[in-house]
């Protein structure tokens, strides 16, 4: 059986259909490879494409061959060990077939794993597949620049591709009936008279001339005229668009070690890529806090080294003030993602509870909290855990021990559980 491998460059996307078919076929293996890449990458390399390796056992294909069949006796040349009736033992485990793992092998032949490159766009598609912001609803039309086309009857003018065949033919038939109705009735009368009139009647010649004139008049009526053309009328109407804002709240206090901060940044960078990839119009508000909370830009949020004590309520208070000032719950879908190691003053936990219950949770569509670290759950976790039952539809908490758990937890928090309006 011959195998042909096309290694020509993919000029002008000539093999795009085959590539899409391949990606669909090995969807599971590519998804697992993307998940592994997220755990091992640096933050700055998170959004780049990647080389995907598929084990050779997954790309092998079954095939049919013609067997010789029947009962046969074969004598192989060079046999010095066996005689008729001997049972041949199985070869030792691992012999033959090569290693196939990139390591040296002194037996048989093998095949390397299949490696190919996926683009940045394809990498992000697999990364955020089946994910969505929960509970997003369409708000009012203020400032909306999104429109959709809707049918609005018919028009006398339009593009050729908008011609309504049924309406056009109906109009043409009505026009022909209106213009030629009298002539067609007279024609029927003339034909009836000619059938009853003798061949030598002197009036027959006049009727035949009249019949010729009627046929000429009826033939002059066009089957289709520009007046008959009817077009489907399409009008653009404002389309409600989901206005959304995501608050990213990260603890940068002294109890957050470098490893914990790195894990938190990975989570937020993954969230930021997810929002950029799937939502064209969404605002992101970055809040860092220690003893004081501050709204910062993207660069400061991910790369600043500022640290200090721990007062979580300062971040929740600032978030409440920003919502009241810029993001009315009547117009915006409000989301929040918070990351911390769970450490906080006991007195401040009470202020956090009041801020969440009175000012934050009633206004947000979805609030997520991840507690990072391998220790036992801290005070902030126990506080949030007590609120989950009261706000189960919009409040979710998860624990993350290291970078390997970021992607599974992220998918759990933002998995698509319902259709987004």
UniProtKB/TrEMBL annotation:
Q: Where is this region: Disordered?
A: 46-110
List the biased-composition ranges (Basic and acidic residues): 70-89
Question: What is the protein named?
Answer: UPF0229 protein HELGO_WM30562
Coiled coil regions, renumbered to chain: none
Task: Name the lineage.
Answer: Bacteria, Pseudomonadati, Pseudomonadota, Gammaproteobacteria, Thiotrichales
Protein family membership: Belongs to the UPF0229 family.
Which is a Pfam family this sequence falls into?
Answer: DUF444
Name the InterPro entries for this protein: UPF0229
Secretion signal, residue range per the UniProt entry: none
């Amino acid at each position: 059986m011959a195998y042909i491998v096309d290694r020509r460059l993919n000029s002008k996307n000539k093999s795009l259909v085959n590539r899409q078919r391949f990606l669909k076929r090995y969807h599971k293996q590519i998804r697992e490879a993307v998940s592994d890449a997220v755990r091992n990458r640096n933050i700055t390399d998170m959004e780049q494409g990647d080389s995907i390796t598929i084990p050779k056992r997954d790309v092998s294909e079954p095939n049919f061959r013609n067997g010789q069949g029947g009962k046969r006796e074969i004598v192989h040349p060079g046999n010095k060990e066996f005689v008729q009736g001997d049972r041949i033992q199985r070869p030792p485990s691992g012999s033959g077939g090569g290693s196939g793992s990139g390591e040296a092998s002194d037996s048989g032949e093998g095949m390397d794993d299949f490696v190919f490159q996926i683009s940045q766009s394809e990498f992000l598609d697999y990364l955020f597949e089946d994910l969505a912001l929960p509970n997003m609803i369409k708000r009012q039309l203020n400032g909306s620049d999104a429109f959709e086309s809707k049918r609005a009857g018919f028009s006398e003018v339009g593009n050729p591709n908008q011609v309504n065949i049924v309406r056009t033919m109906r109009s043409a038939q009505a026009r022909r009936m209106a213009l030629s109705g009298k002539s067609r009735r007279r024609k029927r009368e003339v034909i009836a008279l000619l059938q009853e009139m003798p061949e030598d009647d002197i009036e027959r010649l006049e009727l035949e001339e009249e019949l010729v004139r009627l046929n000429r008049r009826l033939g002059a009526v066009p089957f289709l005229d520009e007046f008959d053309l009817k077009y489907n009328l399409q009008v653009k109407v404002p389309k409600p668009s989901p206005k959304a804002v995501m608050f990213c709240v990260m603890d940068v206090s002294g109890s957050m070690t470098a490893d914990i901060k790195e894990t938190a940044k990975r989570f937020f960078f993954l969230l930021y890529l997810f929002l950029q990839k799937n939502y064209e119009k969404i605002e992101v508000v970055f809040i860092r806090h220690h003893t004081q909370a501050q709204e910062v830009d993207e660069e400061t949020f991910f790369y600043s080294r500022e640290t200090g004590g721990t007062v979580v309520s300062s971040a929740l208070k600032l978030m409440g003030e920003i919502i009241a000032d810029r993001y009315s719950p009547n117009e915006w879908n409000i989301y929040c993602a918070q990351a911390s190691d769970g450490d906080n003053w006991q007195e401040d936990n009470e202020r956090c509870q009041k801020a969440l219950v009175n000012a934050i949770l009633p206004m947000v569509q979805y609030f997520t909290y991840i507690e990072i670290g391998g220790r036992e759950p801290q005070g902030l976790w126990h506080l949030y855990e007590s609120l989950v039952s009261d706000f189960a539809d919009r409040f979710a908490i998860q624990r993350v021990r290291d970078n390997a758990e970021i992607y599974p937890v992220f998918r759990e928090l933002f998995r698509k559980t319902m259709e987004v309006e």
